[in-house]
Amino acid sequence: MEGKDVRLFVKRLDLIHPLASGNKFYKLKYNLETAQQSGHDTVLTFGGAFSNHIFATAAAAKAEGLKSIGIIRGENTSQLNATLQQAQANGMVLSFMDRKTYRTKHEAQHIDQLREQFGRFFLIPEGGTNALAIKGTTEILTSEDQHMDYLCCSIGTGGTIAGMINAAKPHQKVLGFSSLKGNFIHQELLDLLETHHIGFQNKYELFTNYHFGGYAKHKPELITFIKKFKKETGIPLDPVYTGKLFYGVVDKIKSGYFPSGSSILLIHSGGLQGISGFNQRFNETLETK
């Protein structure tokens, strides 16, 4: 960046696949493979009405010849948004669950009820984070990234950063920028790393002050940043995850967080499908390409 002795690189996971892009490609890779190997022809998962995970699961399942079911948080509406329309177009059966029940959706009784309703299926958790997802996200970093000093990603359920911590070399530090309000992510990630036996001594740091109001919330300065970044670099960002990540990294560069000569890698984790719905809801003009 101008005036700062650091080098900034972007790994464009959003370009991997036209629909199942970004970190979702890696999270779903081994889940769908295991579903097929275990004789399942249907996957079932959960998500909100604008969920990148729902969107990607529908597309990836269709590409692999699998049926998909999406349990959507909230009440059914007569007009589906663009995310759910595309999921449905890719063959996903949508079923809406009230918010109270949704909070306990992974309890055995609810899963049993879903099996009674839909029959046999392979369960993928909300956001896709499980051992198979972490196996996939460990592959995000490749040999060409080994010269990087800092590896930066956004955080939702923690599956992406867990895989990156698992893959990071001893000289590298993984920086996570949470898109959710609150400090609970520190313990959630710690639990995730310990559960999956991932070594993490001095390998990561989390930042929880770039959420702009909370998950799926935004403020004018974030939108201004996203538009300016697109104009200057040609790289589109979304307001839920990548916009907050890139804003946070640039802010950290300006504040002198990174030592002189640092090489910084930002993971563009996709999520651009949600921009059309965002624009419609908030009368905005963010670009998707």
UniProtKB/TrEMBL annotation:
Q: Which residues form the active site?
A: S51 (nucleophile)
N6-(pyridoxal phosphate)lysine modification sites? K24
**InterPro entries linked to this entry:** ACCD_DCysDesulf, TrpB-like_PALP, TrpB-like_PALP_sf
Its keywords, alphabetically, are: Pyridoxal phosphate
Q: Which residues form the Tryptophan synthase beta chain-like PALP domain?
A: 5-270
Under Gene3D superfamilies, the record lists: 3.40.50.1100
The cross-references to Pfam families, in alphabetical order and at most eight, read:
PALP
Question: In the record, what terms sit under GO molecular function?
Answer: D-cysteine desulfhydrase activity
Question: Which domain of life does this protein belong to?
Answer: Bacteria
Q: Which cofactor does it need?
A: pyridoxal 5'-phosphate
Q: Which family is this protein grouped under? A: Belongs to the ACC deaminase/D-cysteine desulfhydrase family.
Record protein name field: 1-aminocyclopropane-1-carboxylate deaminase/D-cysteine desulfhydrase
Q: Which organism is it from?
A: Echinicola soli
